[in-house]
């Protein structure tokens, strides 16, 4: 699902909200999450999961075209860990779909 698909789905699910208002709300939430990660904070959404930063150390890589070794700098990368409730709901839905699609 893309951001625009999420906005369209929320706007259709909640007709009292204008599409423009839904767009602003989604962008505001995503911007706040991004800023929290930039500030080194951890984000936890109960029942959904948590976002944190993982540090990748600098390493020696290889240019696939020339074979030359290059130094790849260290960096911070976002990491998502699904919460227990999300994992259980996805697993239950997957099992239900699997049972419906495969005849006994």
From TrEMBL:
<keyword id="KW-0810">Translation regulation</keyword>
<dbReference type="InterPro" id="IPR000119">
    <property type="entry name" value="Hist_DNA-bd"/>
</dbReference>
<keyword id="KW-0233">DNA recombination</keyword>
<comment type="subunit">
    <text>Heterodimer of an alpha and a beta chain.</text>
</comment>
<comment type="function">
    <text>This protein is one of the two subunits of integration host factor, a specific DNA-binding protein that functions in genetic recombination as well as in transcriptional and translational control.</text>
</comment>
<dbReference type="InterPro" id="IPR010992">
    <property type="entry name" value="IHF-like_DNA-bd_dom_sf"/>
</dbReference>
<protein>
    <recommendedName>
        <fullName>Integration host factor subunit beta</fullName>
    </recommendedName>
</protein>
<keyword id="KW-0238">DNA-binding</keyword>
<keyword id="KW-0804">Transcription</keyword>
<dbReference type="InterPro" id="IPR005685">
    <property type="entry name" value="IHF_beta"/>
</dbReference>
<comment type="similarity">
    <text>Belongs to the bacterial histone-like protein family.</text>
</comment>
<keyword id="KW-0805">Transcription regulation</keyword>
<dbReference type="Pfam" id="PF00216">
    <property type="entry name" value="Bac_DNA_binding"/>
</dbReference>
């Amino acid at each position: 699902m893309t951001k625009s698909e999420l906005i369209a789905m929320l706007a259709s699910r909640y007709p009292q909200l204008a599409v423009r208002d839904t767009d602003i709300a989604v962008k505001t939430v995503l911007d706040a999450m991004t800023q929290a990660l930039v500030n080194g904070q951890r984000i936890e959404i109960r029942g959904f999961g948590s976002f944190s930063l993982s540090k990748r150390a600098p390493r020696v890589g290889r240019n696939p075209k020339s074979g030359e070794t290059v130094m790849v700098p260290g960096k911070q990368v976002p990491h998502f860990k699904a919460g227990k409730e999300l994992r259980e709901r996805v697993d239950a839905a997957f099992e239900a779909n699997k049972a419906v699609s495969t005849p006994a």
